[in-house]
User: Fold these one by one.
Assistant:
Number 1:
Amino acid sequence: MGTAIVSLIVIIIAIYLLSIVTDEFFITSLDQISNRWKLPSNVAGASLMAMGSSAPELAIALLALFKDGGENSDVGIGTIVGSAVFNILVITGVSALARPARVTWRVVVRDVVIYVASIGLLLLTFSDGTITILEALAFLVMYGVYIFILFQWKASEEEFEEEVVEVEETQEGGGLYHTVTSGVTKVIGLLMGDAKKSYIRAFLVSILFIAVISWFLVEYAVQFAEALHIPPVVVALTILAAGTSVPDLIASVVVARQGRGEMAVANAVGSNIFDILVGLGLPWAIAIIVLGRTVQVGTEGLLSSTVVLLGTVILLFVFLTTGRLLSRKEGWFLLASYLAYALWVWLGG
């Protein structure tokens, strides 16, 4: 039990540090890069900003493939699948509780259709537990198609700028937590520099920090699971997935309270598209090229969760199309669904 407690404490601290590095430095540096490249707002949001918010999951998935010869590759996949379930059920659910959201067909049709196609590709890939280079590239190609669609889709530049402001507002606050976080941020900033001015330096150092912290997360998630005699994928699907998604949850609640519930829904779905297509496709492609062979993934416990993931997006689609309003009652139902899912994963594990 002592090992489990120590491992859990390390996981909590690692997630806390990861949220600071990602939100304060990595995403800020990516924001500056997107401005320098003069990317359209919808493309920047779906690519660089999605990369920023999904960097922890991406790093965990990549490290899990190479750690111990890929023995715990399902930890990385589980974190991404679990994070996707969390985003749809918890982030959209809490956002609806903060303020009911009215949505347009732009969100429902464009992002949800691409998201369902992504889940379908994931289910097809999981069918034999073997990942080939063609399957890995298919994920990346589909994401490229998504970006192309965004380029063709008319979107307001102001929407992206307001999103950045709202995310930054979540950093305001008082009390002990804010004081400690402010101090930790300043210490990390000594190595990062000013993310707005020295954005290249902050970008590179952030990647190093994220990689190191993610290694600790994978290592201690496995130790925590072994101490409790449960599969590591159970920890990945719940604790790691929820922990790495908390910053997105906080930002989405602030956006929802401002009457931008549609943006919170769009961010949750868009982030999931990146998580699945790039967060899995890129690590798989790198691993196959480096190892010179196909990648074997343990799909036990993942296939059923992926089917659940498909069910969550269908549920969300139904809610969004009934009057195009995500109500508080529906928000409570989404949260209850996540609680049921988490219990099912743990009891099944």
Number 2:
Amino acid sequence: MKVSRSGYYKWLSRPESMRSQRRKQWTEQIKNVFDASRQLYGSPKISKKLQQSGVDISERTVSRIMKQEGIRSRTVRKYKPTTNSNHSLPVHENVLEQNFSADAPNQKWVTDITYIPTREGWLYLASVMDLYSRKIVGWHMAERMTKDLVLNALRQAYRRRQPQNGLIHHSDRGSQYASHAYQDLMITYRMKGSMSRKGNCMSPQQQARDLQSPDLIR
């Protein structure tokens, strides 16, 4: 680095500057506030908290230190609706009637769409669950919540399980499930349609969200 030996040892033995000491202290204080916020606070809130406690530091300095130290706020994801029942498409009666038990595989399937936040944006997951085993028998992921998302999930479930005619297929009243393409596929597979009443939560949906993992697919 073209530095003399004597100059290097002189620098090595030089006491830490006040500026360096102050930066270390600020870094520690920033980390304490950040951890106390459950890693949710960004530089504006952290600088405000420090200033309130008597620390003379600007938001710009806090932002710079956070960037240098790799401190990033953990964004709380907002709820993203997956059901749009405000449409003129035909809907089925609730044939399932909250009876979530089955005597054998491939008697009753329930379907759902959920969303997964990623650094690149939202990903949507459509799943099909067999109420007998509570296993996900078909699923598909995509960047958009279209009818193709649910169509591909149902096609996979049918290919895997090859159910007999008359299987009860239950879903919400979302436009994806009520679409003509999806209903035509159900007719092709000879499934009996069932849909939740408007505003009626379907408890297997919550179970399906817990089970929506490719590791659980049979």
Number 3:
Amino acid sequence: MRIPIIAGNWKMYKTVSESEAFARELAPRLAPFTGVERVVCPTFLAIDAVARALRGTDIAVGAQGMHWEDQGAFTSQVSPAMLKELVTYVIIGHSETRQYLGETDETVNKKVKAALAHGLKPIIAVGESLEQNERGETAAFVGGQVRAALEGVSADDMRHVVIAYEPIWAIGTGRSASGQQANEIIGGSIRAVIAELYGDEVAQAVRIQYGGSVKPDNMAEFMSQPNIDGALVGGASLKVDDFVQLVEIAAREKGR
């Protein structure tokens, strides 16, 4: 059985002191839910403080992105070699980095392979625009993103990969796909592409999250779907009560 994974993407919110205080408040509230993997992804500046605050707990820390090179003249960037001492996970290919920071399928693939080479676990975000969705292009587009992200990734490394299906039109908009819609894309496109590339055994082992306006009042709809293994959460991860509720719902719906 795939272990559910709920990851909070804090985006560009919370100062270092706010992040540390939040992590200290969150830790005991999440402690009972050992059957769900819990991850928080603060800003780069707050990673060290959050990692220290969560030391001794089983809550993982992730980064919101990284460069693919170990070092070099890349002003403003952070390398996997720098991150691996502090985090377990790294988000790669989020739609906001694709839209605002020039992320491409090629750079996503470079970062995925670099993360894996340094023992980091990538959370690879994929998703279509509203226009693509309305034209019926979702399955082909998202499947293409998955293929591009995983080019050159071995079957053995796939056990460290998490994929997050985040339709762009649902991120931060208050809109979300229905549970059934998300399940169909995740199972019929993303998991199907992984099966084509690596075989059904690998495809059935890979965890795939849903993301996009996930909240406590719609979480059960997503977690009750057989192909959805968790959530990559934005706004609702910024409030302790909301994030705890999301994890609690995942534990209940997934029998953990």
Number 4:
Amino acid sequence: MNKFYTSLLVLFVACATSLVNAQEAGDAKAGETKIAMCIGCHGIKGYQASFPEVYKVPKISGQTSAYIVSALTAYQKGDRKHPTMRSIAASLTPKDMADIAAYYEAHGKDSAPAVPDKAADATGKVAELVTKGACTSCHGANLNKPMVPGYPKIAGQYKDYVYVALKSYKSENQATWGRNNGVMGGVAKQFTLEELKELAAYVSQQQGDLQTVPQSKFR
């Protein structure tokens, strides 16, 4: 990663840390009463979204609460453009977001597998791509321990979702699709779509905390 992106990273770390420190405390018990709009997609293993293409919705059980709040806030503000998620986020107060995030951070922890300290070594071209993208600089050596809580755990995430997410950072001037983020935009735009697929496949093969834990009604 060049000096420009390194400088951007330092700036975003400072901003993210400040936002995390200011985040409202969440109540997981209260969050359990507020997830009705979440479980229809995120509470079914392998459930697929169809916009803007078919892909599995992300695993969010075990994700950091700060990241979930950050993502929901981005949908609410329009920094992430997705009609369904923006509509859901628009209905939430900061307290709702904090409670839902606290619930999902704790959800499934008792059944989570042990996570290694380091991701498996990439080989061949993928090793070059991982180095070029500096993935571990933000997401941790095992891609499961972000350097600040506002960044996501990505180890073990569905590869088709990771690909769509990465591709969305390359999208510009789209009314209903795309994500605005200086660091991730700079990273994603370095790669071709085929290279993003290779990165997504590597990320999905790692062991992490992320799970889809079905609600009892879907088991």
